[in-house]
């Protein structure tokens, strides 16, 4: 038996359920036709478990007619197509997910394709396909996906293939399969705000010199903001989430003259302009460079949470942004021995932790000035953390922190691609030895 053509017994059971007129029963699980389909699937595929909520979710995804209002019956799939998709889903071992991130405030950027990701504008129809707008309409009949407004923004879309290790019910209601003895209040220190594959993609894009391209760094050095990520899953046993409103993105009024000569007010996306050189430089962030960065991240030089703090700085505001940049630098070039002299060689009578990181910066970037920048920013950090009197952090210092962390991380990527098997401590010791003369 293959997943190409559903067994006749599945096709018949789905057809009988599809003939139940709307409105359906208050309790779908008590419907004889529903129970018959569940038993058919269990007899054919024992590993399916007891798919109650999962089967109900899948049927809604497929547009079960008795679960739709009269004015939404057109959203239902034909029963034979529903049977095919359901039969395939029950046997599936893997599924695809798409993570959609709107690039709020972004200037017009060239399209990019790298690794699992695409950065570009999408048409109204393309966006409807990406989010499966018909599926959303089956679950959320009182709201509509505003593809027209969303199409005015550029998007980062990341495709991911995942293994379906749990049975359907575990994917539909994960909490039922959770270990209730676990510590639900625990903190996972390096867990990201967005799915890991999205943050990996963001890390790659953030290696670009956005702070140099920005025409308005006093407003924001970033080339774009990612306020949220929407994930859509082709697994029928996963309930879709509602898409955030376009109002969550940045809009501004614009006055236009219509064909009758009347002035009308419309909204358009807010854009933070970039220098012209950005349009020519962005295409360098392409597939080959993505592969290079991916190889670098497998190096021991990235075994510390450099990526985590680099992204945290981008996602943070205010003083937390600056702290994030400096912590990313320390994660990149710091060692435990910098703070614990007992871990150093007896012959190592060198300076303290801050000077040691500064020396490595000078060696990595081949200039004393970068070490001076770090020490200047470190004083700002220390004043804040230790409660000493301090003024505001200037735009220049804010941009300096971002630029220095980017330059260091980019240089670390370059170094990692030529030192794949390197021992991190040995590499950083070598940088320290070469950097101390700069100081």
Rounded to the nearest angstrom, the distance between the terminal CA atoms is 72 Å
Strand order of the largest sheet: 2-3-4-1-5
Biggest sheet layout = 5 strands, antiparallel
**Number of discrete domains:** 3
Low-confidence stretches: none
Helix content: 40-55%
Give the overall form. Answer: globular
Query: Structural class of the secondary structure composition?
Result: alpha+beta
- Tally of individual helices: 18
Mean pLDDT: 92
H-E order: HHHHEEEHHHEHHHEEEHHHHHHHH
Strand content: 5-15%
Total beta-strand segments: 7
Written account of the structure:
With 439 residues, this protein is an alpha+beta fold. It has helices at residues 8-18, 32-44, 53-62, 79-91, 124-131, 133-139, 147-150, 168-172, 196-205, 210-213, 277-281, 287-297, 306-315, 318-333, 353-365, 368-385, 395-417, 424-435, and strands at 94-103, 112-114, 117-121, 154-163, 230-233, 251-257, 263-269. The strands form two sheets. A five-stranded antiparallel β-sheet has the order 2-3-4-1-5.
